[in-house]
Specification:
Structural class: mainly alpha
Largest sheet: none
Mean pLDDT: 75
Helix content: 55-70%
Number of domains: 1
Low-confidence stretches: 127-143
Strand content: under 5%
Order of helices and strands: HHHHHH
Number of helices: 6
Shape: globular
Distance between the termini: 58 Å
């Protein structure tokens, strides 16, 4: 009798570095960040787990006039944490969960940035979707908008307290 083998899920990242790579690829390509402004400058197939390509992607985002000051702050601090962790854990070496906490926090901010951009464009995308029905389109409640405003204020306060 053979024992079942477990295949890793293609959707589950094997490390914090892979999680960051996946977040950038998903935000730029799947969520069409800034209406696809970065699809050619950050191609999906070149975002890899290497320090250089991830940092290059961050640099492209930081150099762009498409990002707001707040978005650039989010990218900048995620980049700083990534470089720090990559320098501490080069090659295939992986940090333990406690050692990657700061990058995980910045990664959450990066994912939120991509999601907020997609949510802002949602009415535009629904108008362009000829098959959009009222059941398919999501409406955001006033409390959800208020929650996002509070989250944004909290994020800005947190980012302003991080040394540059």
């Amino acid at each position: 009798m053979s024992t079942p083998t477990h295949k890793p899920s293609p959707y589950k990242a094997s490390s914090i570095f892979s999680s960051l790579q996946n977040a950038i690829a998903k935000g730029i390509h799947d969520q069409n960040f800034k209406n696809g402004a970065f699809r050619t400058s950050i191609p999906h197939n070149t975002i890899s787990n290497t320090k250089t390509s991830v940092v290059d992607a961050f640099n492209i985002l930081l150099a762009s006039p498409e990002l707001s000051t707040e978005e650039k702050e989010t990218v900048k601090y995620c980049r700083i944490q990534f470089i720090h962790l990559r320098n501490c854990f080069p090659g295939a070496t992986q940090p333990k969960a406690g050692e990657a906490g700061a990058l995980e926090e910045k990664l959450k901010g990066l994912k939120e940035m991509f999601e907020e951009d997609a949510a802002r464009r949602e009415p535009e995308n629904a108008a362009l979707d000829f098959e959009a029905t009222p059941a398919k389109t999501k409406k955001r409640s006033a409390s959800a908008v208020d929650d996002n405003a509070v989250s944004g204020k909290r994020l800005r306060k947190t980012l302003s307290s991080v040394p540059q």
